[in-house]
Design a protein that fits this description.
The chain is of the alpha/beta class and 357 residues long. It has helices at residues 3-28, 82-94, 114-124, 137-141, 148-153, 163-166, 187-191, 217-220, 223-226, 246-252, 254-267, 276-283, 327-332, 340-343, and strands spanning 71-77, 102-109, 130-135, 173-177, 181-183, 201-203, 205-206, 236-237, 241-245, 288-289, 318-320. The structure holds 2-acetamido-2-deoxy-beta-D-glucopyranose. 2-acetamido-2-deoxy-beta-D-glucopyranose binds next to loops.
Length: 357
Amino acid sequence: MPLHHHHHHQYHHLLLLHLVAATVFAAAAHQQFREAPQFYNSPDCPPNIANNNNGDDHYSTSSTVCSDHVVHVAMTLDATYLRGSMAAILSILQHSACPENIDFHFITSDASDGASLRRTLAASFPYLRFSLYPFRSSSVLGLISTSIRSALDCPLNYARNYLPHLLPLCLRRVVYLDSDLLLVDDIAKLSATPLGPSSVLAAPEYCNANFTSYFTPTFWSNPALSLTFADRRPCYFNTGVMVIDLHRWRAGRYTSKIEEWMELQKRMRIYELGSLPPFLLVFAGNIAPVDHRWNQHGLGGDNFRGLCRDLHPGPVSLLHWSGKGKPWARLDANRPCPLDALWAPYDLLRPPFPLDS
Ligand SMILES: *[C@@H]1O[C@H](CO)[C@@H](O)[C@H](O)[C@H]1NC(C)=O
């Protein structure tokens, strides 16, 4: 493809992206959120030397505490999923024995209004320790091969690939979480998941899922590609809940490895979905296990028919509305699934005032 054509194409993506971002942002500006209660450490929490870092200027991370007593949580933050993120944050604080020892790291698109997101967060969580990190969404657009729609859906979906290069170098361990979930247990337990001698990440594994189906026949019929799984037993895992060792990730240059598979996907179709399969290609079979209670996923429902899903058997520490349906949208539409009632108490959105009367 001639270079100028490529640029033109990319410019087109960017322009559309900005238009969509501006529209979504205008919609989010109408959202008003309540202030969450303040949460305090219980007496036996390890002391936390940090002051509240919430007054930092925009993207500063200088007061991040790289102490073992701090649980580090990374999430993306954008106007579209803000309501979900706010509920997730509230649930994390509420179920934590040491809520003052949690540092939040929010990845935002550089196309969004970081200052406004910061103000909104700080208004609802005046005591939250957090930093914002702008992610150059244009950098990933060139690697996304799929339809323009899914690229526009969210370049931030790909931000998790870049966490080790966005977060401060002194951070060793981070819990990455999607924005459509709730914790109902102490995140410190999840963060303490053993990674063993060499695993880079930990996540609940699903070895009964049909792993073959995540990749195309083109992939499986080409030994040069499929042999990547030759020396491991790969299982599906969901990338919405992960404990990541950032030092090991950086040392192993895993961001580049994921990007190499994305480059290949641009030339030949080796998988169907967007951001998940490259993670499976690089990590599946080599991750540390996490109990399934930490990702009760699929509550967004059936992607084809919009059916409600029930919990999987067993205990629950984290509820994940992965899939197409989101609890806030179904509650607003007065068509909630039964489990959406569990999400509602964490909703910080103020009911809208009627504009005309
Ligand atoms: C798994 O998926 C592949 C491809 O989609 C299919 O051919 C195969 O029959 C499936 N295997 C099982 C056990 O369902």
